[in-house]
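Deviation from plan, reported transparently: zinc ion complex.
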Amino acid sequence: MKPWHIVGHEWAVRQLQTAIEHDEVPHALLISGPDNVGKMTLARLVAGALLCKGQADERPCGVCLACRKLASGNHPDLMLVEPEEEDGALKIDQIRAVERFLALTPNESPRKIALIAAFERATIGAANALLKTLEEPPAYAHLILLAQDADGLLPTIVSRSQQIVLRPLATATVEQALREQWNVPAEQATRLARISGGRIGWAIRAATDVVYHQRMENALALLLDVLHQDLPARFDTAQALIRDASVNVSETLEYWLTGWRDVLLIQTGNAERAIHQQHHTTLTQIAQHVPLPATVSTLKAVEGCQEALQRNANAQLALENLLLNLPGG
Ligand SMILES: [Zn+2]
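Because the crystal trials were delayed, the predicted structure below was used instead.
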């Protein structure tokens, strides 16, 4: 088969292409891995290959009517489901809609595919509803589930699906892809690849989307501002972060974590290994003002806040708690 347009994950691509060639794609596929590692890209390739009307060894061909409908989000035999709000849950009504969709025979192809993203955020009701569909799928139906981590899902769902576990890519792979496929200048490619932690999707967005990149810079700038704030101001900052629709809190925490790691590196004499070199002055200032043990406990506190958010804790409380306990400037 012709190579699929995806960076890394070669073994997963080989496995799926073989399944498609032999017409052995399972009814339920569970693709797991960290955010922005390539789960959606891979799922769309599988869906495309299943629905494409091009030559068998060229699917998805990208040019047939089915492929063009997929690209514009208008293929009647593919349903994409994801939480309606950025950090929201996947609800039972959404899974019932999937059931209804799969109950009707396909329109334009021999198959029908439901692609469900962020399944780790399914409510227990939604997960149980899906289980019913998984038990007796119609012959033409394919479910592709995406989740960060299969461990958090109902074991009965995992056992009924074929699992594909995607790992973060090597930093060098991300760097090379940024340079060669997205024409990112070498220095920026190196920096973004290191921040990405192997999550290629993040690196591509940070390199190509000015707004997205600015969000990272804003988050890093806030890192220093917060330290100079008194407690009432920190409350306000927490509230503003929650209310501002342009801010993604878990992403902000991710950047703070990379920033504080840099502070720790500077404090321990490893400044050259810091990744936010263009914020060197700011980070060095923090490194000079904050005692080393406070840096270590701050790193733990940021991680703790991230975990609380993943467990769907009250975001505002978690964030307030973090900000109030940050060291003073
Ligand atoms: Zn096609």
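DSSP finds 15 helices and five strands in the chain. We consider this an acceptable substitute for the interim report.
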